Amino acid sequence: MAITLDSTIADLLREKPESAATLQSFGMGCLGCAIANNETIREAAMVHGIPLEELAKKLGL
């Protein structure tokens, strides 16, 4: 499965579990919560006030 900015946090973590450390470094601590199942990477960046391009680069997207 190709991970994009419109993939959910849960999909990202399934495909690239090592990305949890990157997400946590940006202040996303609730990676296992119910919201992660439906929230996209793009939405999470917006909600947490994270520059989308910076997050995408760090995640290798």
TrEMBL record:
It comes from Methanocorpusculum labreanum (strain ATCC 43576 / DSM 4855 / Z). Transmembrane segments: none annotated. Coiled coil: none annotated. Residues 3-55 form the DUF1858 domain. It comes from the Archaea. InterPro entries: CHP03980_redox-disulphide, DUF1858, ScdA-like_N_sf. This is DUF1858 domain-containing protein.
